[in-house]
Structures are given as C-alpha cells and as structure tokens.
Design brief:
alpha+beta, globular, TATA-Binding Protein, Nucleotidyltransferase, domain 5, 10 helices, 10 strands
Length: 283
C-alpha cells in the first residue's frame, strides 16, 4: 500500500543526508514532476517537486520516514481550522477547529493525513474515525442551512461578504477551542482564504501565548485534520437532512425539491436555489 505525506525543505535535506549516510540507491526519476526516486530492497520512495512524498508501507521504509521527519517543537498545541459546505448548494456550513499535540501531528502525518478534497469518501470516513480514536481535541461548528440563510442575510444587510461570514465562523471555532484547553504556548494555523478578517475577529485572545500564521492547507497537518473532520461531519449532517425530508440531496437538483423545504436544506444565495424559489412564486 502506498502512503503520501507532505514534507518541508528541511525534511527533504534530511532525506538527502540519510541517502548519503546509508547508501540508499537512487534511480532515475520517471517524469518531470518527480524530484527524486529511491528503490532499495523493500524501500520505495518518490519525492515530487510539489513537496509530496509517496512511499510503500514497509518496516524498512518506515525507518527511513521516521528518521527524516521533524517534530513540531515549542508548542503545547497546534490549532487548525477548515470549513466544508461553502461550495455546496445543499447542506450546512461546517467549520472544525482541532488542537493537536506535536506527537499527534507526527502520528497523523504518518498515516497519510492530507486535504480532504484529495481523499475518496470511503477512505475519508475511515481516516476520520482513526483521527477521532487518536483522542484529538476538536470542536465542530455546524451552521444549519436555515441558520446560514438567516445569518448570511444579516451580513449582506451590513454590506459584508461571504469571506467575512467565514471569518466569523472560523474565529468562533478557534475561540471556543482556546477556552477549552490549557497551554503555555500554542500556534494557530489559519487557511489563506482571508487571514486578515479572521485575525481581526480574534480580537481579545492572549497573543503573548499564541503565534498566528497563514498557510496553505496542503502543507499543514492541523488544517488537513480539520478538513477531514469537517467533511466527515458534513456528510453525516447531509444524511440526517435526507432522512428528515425523505430526499437525496447528493443526487437531486434544487428544481426537483419542494420549494417550501429548500430554506431548510439549501443555501438560498446559490443561483440554482434562488431560481427554483423564484419559479415557485410565479407558478
């Protein structure tokens, strides 16, 4: 079985030093996207220029991976958030904040945690269960379609954008997590969608104990864990809506759904939902 992780430039240098030290056999790369390829006995490793490392899950390869990965130091917790549901016309908006210890980050990297958009649903649900079993601290903020529609209208009347709505949701999840943990030093990782608006809404947190950074989710374990758990919660919430209203939101379009229930299962700012609502009023 192949597993993929993202590695830093420092970890890449660690791998190169390990190759020199142990004499691992490098072979020519297979295409222009590969940076280096190792095939040595039971060790198979490919490093891509994107920073992704793919390896076969054998004890011999695990020994190499364990030797090159860097443990996050200097923090009691690393917090990350991500949202799911922003781009779907149906279902809730789900924002999850996680707080990982450095040891948990290391373990989760090694089981292949990555952005939820790159993982098939069946594997994602299994991976989410593994993450939960690790005892990871996480807080889901679930904004139902009905609440989303009401709050989004409030934001629009104040001339605020969807990004500002997301900043409110992310900062609310982060604050709730910070209130529930004890720490001397923590790092908060904010996805790059709009760090300024989120940072502004974190007003009041004790910055002497916090480091707040902006990053891309593809390269940050805490954000990837939040991404997986947010998708996990979203899928379960959609299942609940389907059962409650006897519909299948994943396979139906707004035009196939009774307009009276759309505000309870859909985000009405989407054009296809608005079109359905408008046509029902004209009928």
């Amino acid at each position: 079985m192949l597993t993929s992780i993202s590695i830093s430039l420092r970890e890449l240098q660690n791998l190169k030093k390990y190759i020199i030290k142990t004499g691992l056999r490098r072979v020519p790369v297979a295409n222009q996207y590969e940076l280096l390829r190792i095939e040595n006995g039971k060790v198979r490793i490919i490093v891509y220029k994107s920073g992704k490392l793919v390896f076969n899950d054998t004890p011999e390869t695990r020994e190499v991976i364990n030797s090159i990965l860097e443990l996050e130091r200097g923090y009691d917790y690393i917090l990350g958030t991500d949202e799911v549901g922003k781009g779907e016309w149906y279902g809730p908006l789900v924002v999850v904040c996680v707080a990982l210890t450095p040891i948990q980050m290391d373990r989760l990297r090694k089981i292949g945690v990555r952005d939820s958009k790159l993982i098939k649903k069946s594997l994602l649900m299994s991976l989410a269960s593994q993450i939960i079993k690790e005892g990871v601290l996480w807080k889901p903020l679930i904004v139902s379609p009905k609440t989303f529609n009401e709050r989004f209208e409030e934001f629009k009347r104040e001339n605020k954008t969807l990004n500002e709505f997301l900043a409110w949701a992310h900062s609310a999840a982060i604050k709730e997590m910070l209130d529930s943990i004890k720490y001397n030093r923590a790092k908060i990782v904010i996805d790059k969608f709009d760090v300024e608006k989120t940072y502004r809404r974190l007003y009041g947190v004790d910055e002497t104990k916090l480091r707040i950074i902006q990053t891309s989710k593809e390269n940050e374990v805490a954000v990837n864990v939040a991404s997986i758990l947010a998708k996990y919660v979203f899928e379960r919430e959609v299942d609940k809506l389907n059962k409650a209203f006897q519909i299948d939101l994943r396979k139906m379009s707004p035009s196939e759904i009774n307009s009276t229930i759309l505000p309870f299962v859909a985000k009405v700012h989407f054009k296809n939902v608005r079109r359905r609502m408008k046509s029902s009023k004209l009928a």
